[in-house]
Here is the input.
Amino acid sequence: MEQIQIEHLSFSYPLGSGNALEDVTLSVRAGEYVALCGESGCGKTTLLRHLKPALAPNGQTSGVVRFCGTPVRELDAREQASRIGFVQQDPESAVVTDKVYHELAFGLESVGVPQAQMRLRVAEMASYFGIGPWFNAPTDSLSGGQLQLLNLASVMALHPDVLLLDEPTSQLDPVSAADFLATVDRIHRELGLTIILTEHRLEDVLPCADRVIVLHRGRVAADCAPRDIGKALTGELGFLRDSVPSAMRIWAGTGSALPCPLTVCEGKQWLSDTVRVQNAVRRDVPPPETAESAVRMREVFFTYDKQAPDVLRGLTMDVPTGGVFALLGGNGAGKSTAMKAAAGLVQPYRGRIELFGRDVRKIPQKELYCRFVGVLPQQVRTLFTEKTVRLELEAIDRAHAEDMARRLRLTAFLDRHPYDLSGGEQQRTALAKVLLTQPQLLFLDEPTKGMDSAFKTDFAALLRELCERGVTVFMVSHDVEFCAKTADRCAMLFDGVLAADAPTVSFFADNTFYTTAANRIARHVFPDAVTDEDVICLCNENRI
Here is the structure.
């Protein structure tokens, strides 16, 4: 049975230069798991929000969206809230109460569920999602992964018929993201719930999905089975090439005549059938050249609350000058705090931090944040103060605003309000503002959040260009694929201290979970291959 029907849906934002959605027609059957993908700004979030009118964006709409035969706009607020669940990108923005158990009950109270039934549902959700150990915890003490799981549990407590998820793992570390998507898959398999999920990282999504819908410039470009996407990567879906799982990308890059692999396991088997399998031998990695430290941290201790445990516990770390340094680790490990401390945004109660040999506490703020240090925060909306993107950029540097907009693909959005942009477009706007300050030391907190894979390639090239000019980049990221392709050196933070620090290839080749899918696929044959390009090149050199 068709549960959702979309007929000739078109939509444009106020002051937009064109339609964000253009004559979209499709249907979703009850119980389907649909992956909705495409480049940043292609209309994924806009389409998803039209399926729940309470969240629909403001603008000009034509066409109709039906839920179980009824136009969604005719559903009353209670029916919308209970039957159509929605999990957003940012887990923090979705939380409205102070305690975990309050959050689980909040939606049920809002739709008038009787108290006895409410207690049962809260207990059931806490048990199903493993929330019991932190059931009484304050919501502001949870990690990103726990917050997103709580959001999902709160939605599921309403017993929805459809679950909509808008890039739910964009702010999660790789392990938390995989766990969250495994939970979504479990819900689909055990409850038969209809799921529509938008995502840029498709590695863990496509193997679970029944169907993939690709949007391109507001239109449906493809609607097919997940495995069929690989066959079109060299044709009309070439723009999606960097978004699909590594096994697919490597397969497409080698021109293999064997069936297309979809998962890491299938990719590993395909590789064994494709190349001469020899004893895997690690190549010697030359020791890194010693360089001056742009950031030098020694025995740094920091806590946000004197009564709480330390977030940083004697952190000692060096960031070499003139390269890209990536700091990885789980949610709550202290990565963002370490970056804020290095940038002078928070003050440790013990330890010393130097920027290019100068104590950060003794650098006047006017000097520190004027062409010396630039910071891209995780919550980029905090940087927006103007009514349009154009005004945001011109407020920093009018002479170079349009050129920066062109570099970051913002020209089409210059007259839009920053809050009307997609998550990836907001990210690029904030990045443009920071880059216009021309900093010597660039701090980036989750810079690729919401970015499509095509722009990540351009962004990596831009960071390389900045480094060649002498800029040092300190990046906090969960995006292991981007770090593997871009960073010169990677480190892992765990429980407030540095657990590892090594050149990029050595770092990822030595890890099991915090490594790339390409390395998991190829490490039994090519131990030092950490990117898709590495594996493709070695495959072509060692074919059977």
Notes: The chain has two domains: 2-244, 293-516.
